[in-house]
Structures are given as structure tokens and as C-alpha cells.
Amino acid sequence: MPPHPYGPLSLLPPVVAIGLAIVTRRAALALVVGIYFGALVTTGGNPFTAVYDTLEVQLWPTLTDPGKLRVFAFTLLMGAMIGVICRCGGMRGLIGLIAPLANSRRSGQMITWFLGLLIFFDDYANTILLGNTLRPLCERLRISREKLAYLVDSTAAPVAGLALVSTWVAVEIDYLRDGLELLPATNQLRAFDLFLASIPYRFYVLMALLFVPLVALLNRDFGPMLAAERRGLRQPHPYGEDAEAQLEDSMAAQSDLSARWYNGVLPIVITLAVVMVLLVVTGRRALDAAGAPPNAPLRDILGSAASSVSLFYGSLTGLAVAALLARMQGLLTARQIAEAAGQGARVVLPAIVILWCASSLSRQTSNKSVTGAPTRTPYQFQDHRLYTGDYLANLLVPNRGQKADASRPGEPASRVTGSEAIPASSARIPIELLPTVVFLLAAVVSFCTGTSYGTMGILLPIVLSLTYSMLSAGGQTVTPDNPILLACVGGVLAGAIFGDHCSPISDTTILSSQACACNHMAHVITQMPYALTVAVVAVLFGTLPLGWGVSVWLLLPAQAIVLIVILRVVGRQVE
Predict the structure, then answer these.
(1) Stretch among 92-106, 362-376, 499-513 having the lowest mean pLDDT
(2) To 10 degrees, what angle do helices 483-502 and 520-538 make?
């Protein structure tokens, strides 16, 4: 394989964007500047051509992509629906319904965590629904918006990535299948079996889900989150000085309207129901078009579904139901409904701008063309793509363009995304350290690119092929229950989510902060110490000892105990 066209310069856009976002606390501006620096790299340093590339090759195609447009529209419609629900008193009624269960800061956080586990089928739906719905409740309990954003973000991608029925599962299985195609035909591995068996080995994901209730039950926080929580106790509206974090006053319910819980519950329940139905319908149609058997499992149906279409029409239906309920009960006039919807939509506009810019940066660092075509020849789209993930993957396996001679003879080396078998001699690390290195590499790729999906797609084929080759070279028979193999698979899937949690340019991080009306960089800064703590525990008491033969069933409870000890020693009572 030819050398990477840009080398370390492929890291420039995310480094600039993340650094500038931390310094200025203006995510959209930082992302645009990062994209421009990336365009300078791909255009050979021409500042004028880079301006054109930034606007016409990076930003505009992302904005006009049908899938992205539907996600943007879904976000707007959800904001509009919440605006109508708030104005007609439905949100106040919903809070009144939940209030007996959430009468303290501890119970409020536990309910948020539990509801996050229930909305397991899609991370976007989880984030938008929970953030907007539970924000008034958390403000009443003096739970800071930073804490709410953390609760929402930590139960979105982790739950969707683990659930056997979600928009994630078939994508993850498909990436595993791509990797298995590179192995000798005599291998006994199946993609779904690997997905299922790797669940206990996704240490970061499991411990991140556990850390949320531990923080709530022990009522302890540390770092920037502790300061945010104490500020939340002193101020009715945490981050009240941030104008972007304020709800429009006109969205508040009129005082003379009765608070009816079903005006808040029905639109949300119907939104979820329509999304689920459309996921099944669109997934079934896609499988039928591909010639799949009629009895395909639900996980394959959901994985083939048009999730953006389902989310769009689900939120549109929810908005229509909210408006209909308000009109039929005489709570709002048609003009008031339109005003409330418009004001609710305006609240989420910053999220859409940041999400647009982050998606553009993610595409710029990817290995797919403007039209989404995958790379077929080495660095085929280097005139407008940086291949950042491929550069980082090359650090792990510097000679991954070489073919392993026995796996698929006669096939030309084509893609640079891991579609060639990896000889064991390519690796620079011992097999015992491979799970740890894989996890950390996935975290870095995800952090720099802001995408879990892209990280999984780049690394899973590489990691599967490399791990199989190294285990075979060591004289082992690679079985579906091999701990090193499962830890490497789990390391990619967990590391991708860890990097996504920490990255300011991640879509779910952006949506979490905006849905919770929290300053975006405040969410990143307060969540990162928690994510790093869980990741360090996952490495020191997970991937490292597992590489030397310690059973996963001993490591999981050990990690839980260590997290409890950390909270007891480092954490402080908020009150």
C-alpha cells in the first residue's frame, strides 16, 4: 500500500476544532475553522481554494444530504413538539405525574437513568426525548443541566450499542461480517455469535451504564461536575448566565391552564410507537428488496431500516398529536400553537448548526467520497478526504496492505479500510496487550472523527483479521469463545463509544447538550472526567489483566467495586 498522503496532518482539523472549542467555548465557530484547516491540507495550502472547498465540498453537501436533512428536521420537530406541550400545560402535568416518584435529587437521577434504559432502540431518539422531557423535572429538583446532559448522553449510545433490538445492532454485525470475510474459509466464527459473546467484554460501555446509578445512589460527584451541581443548588437555572441555555419564556404554560399529564405523555408515546413501526416497515422493505428471507430476525430488520425517515415521521406525528390535543381541548388557538411550535424549534437551532458542522468535519476526516462511495483504491478521494482513521490504524498495523497468503488467494488488495487480511508479522505489539491497544486506538479515532459508526467500520475488519492471524501464529485454535478475540471485538465497540462520549464534535454529545439546554462545552468538560475515570478502570481492571488470562467474570465485579471506591474516596457530597 502507498504511504498515507497526509500523515500527521490528517489529524489537524479535529485537533484545531477541539482545541479552539475548549478555548472559545464556541463549538460551531471552532468546527468551521477546523474544516477550513482540513481544506488547506487537501488543497495544498491554497487559502482561496480552501474557502471554496470548505463551503462547496464539505459544508454544503452535508447540509443537502437527505439523511442529514431528516435528522435536522427531526430535531426541529421534536423542539416544536416540546414547545407545544410546554405551552398547553402538558409538561407541567407530566412532571406532576412523575413527581411522587422523583422527590429528591437521588430519585430524579435514578428515574432519568431508568428511562434512558427503556428507550434503547435509537440513541438520537433517546437523547432528544429525555433531554427535553426531563429538563423541567431536573430543574425543580435542582439537578444541574450538566448532570442531566451526562445522564442522557451516558444512556444513549451505550444502550443502543448493547441492545439486541436497535438501529445499531445490524450495523455492528455487518462490520463484523466484513472482517470475517477476510479470514480463512475454515474459521468457525459467525458475526452474530461474536457480537453476542463480546457483550461482557465491552468494559467501558457496561461500566459507564453502571457509573450513572452509582453516582446517583452515593450522591457524590467530583471535578467540574461537582462545581456544576453545587451551582445548580444555588441557582434555579444552572448556567442561567448563558443565554443559549434558556428556554423561551413564552414556551412556559399559561397559569390559567390546567396541567393534564396526558397532553405530555400521549405525543411522546405516539412518537415512539410510530418510530418503532416505521423502523420495522422500512427495514422489512429494504430486506425484501435485497432478497432476504421473509422470516428475518428483528435485529436484521431494524439494522436495515431507514432510521432517519422513521425519526422524521415519528416526530412529525408527535407534533401533530400535541397540536390536536391542545386545539380540541380549547387550550390554545391555532395561532398560539404555531407560535409555541416556532419558539420550541428555535431553541434547538444551535444544535442543528453544530451538528451540521460536526457532520461535515466527520466526513472530511473519513475515507468516503462526497456521494458516500467507499474507497476502492488506496486513498482514492485524497483530493477532499483526509483518511484520518486510516492514518491512526496504520500506527497499529503499519504494513496492513500486505496480504496473508492463505486466506483468499487471487483477490487483489483493494480497499484501505481493512478489507485485506493482516499478516501476524505486521503487528508491533504482543498479543497480551492487543485488547488494550485496540480499545485505546478506537477511542482516539472516535474522539478525532466524532463518529462511533465510522470508527467501527474502519477498525473492526482490521482488528478481526489481525487478532485471528496473531492467535493462529501463536499456535492457538481460534474459537468463538476465545477471550483475546472477544476482548478485541469488544474493545473496538466500547472504545468507539468512549471516544464519542469525550469528543466535542460528536453528534450525540452535541444533541445531549442542546436537548438539555446546557452549554455544549460545559457538558464536554463536566462529562469527560467521568468518562476518563470509567475508561481507566476498564483498562487497568479489564483489558490489561484479561490479556494475561484473568477471567472476565472476575474482572466485571472488580471494576464495579473499584468505581464505588473511587466515588467514596474522590467524590464529595453535593449538599
Answers:
(1) 92-106
(2) 160
